[in-house]
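Run AB hydrolase-1 domain-containing protein through structure prediction, thanks.
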Amino acid sequence: MGTEATSATQEPKTGLQFILIHGSWHHGGHWKQVQQVLEGRGHRVYAPTLLGNEPNSERINYPLKEIVQLLQEDIVSRDLTDIVLAGHSSGGYIVQQLAQLQPQRVQKVIFINAFVLQEGENLLGFITEEPPTAENNYSFHRLAPFDWFRNEFANTVDEETAKAIYASLVPQGGQPHSERQNLRTFFELPVSKAYIFLNKDPIFAGLGMQNWHPQFSTRLGEYKLVEMGGDHEALLTNPTVLAEKLIEASSDLN
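Sure, done. The structure for AB hydrolase-1 domain-containing protein is below.
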């Protein structure tokens, strides 16, 4: 499924099976350093690239249903089970959709400064201020200006590192972010839930709104909160600690 970070070895199953879902402007390869740490701890990792986010591919505005359906088929074809399904940022609502489609395969969902949407909501409803020069529909088909990204996404690293991360991002279609979500069954699922709060992420503070926690975390009902020092790009700016926090968030499964 596009660019991905995944293990190819056919060894007896050990540890936990993580599936890592990226957010906007990212692809599966951005999880590489997190994956390496998790695998070094004895876990299995699959980090797919969502349809429409493949590097160097044509930018097509795919609908949410098509993106989730292809991901679901991919996971079924790989026969992945007992999944710890983790989503970052806009990957949160992808986790929600996938979990309610394949509840028998998912044992835990983890949200990493991620949107947790309710029935009928969309992501755009939480964006009250657009990045400078972005089009009115916030389509994501071109990247926000570097200065905005630097201040809001990669604010814990030096400018050279932030530029390297920015250069690796991919434009994408924004249609899924505007679609009203059908999440009738997600909150009824008997799966364990956790929220990893990156406490140096200023995005919502800059919009005059509640931070990721408690704005979205508390929507999960009963959940485990894990906090770490990290900006929004922690998968690239603090990957070792993020991997360790994923393990900590899943400690009830060991």
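The chain has one domain: 5-253.
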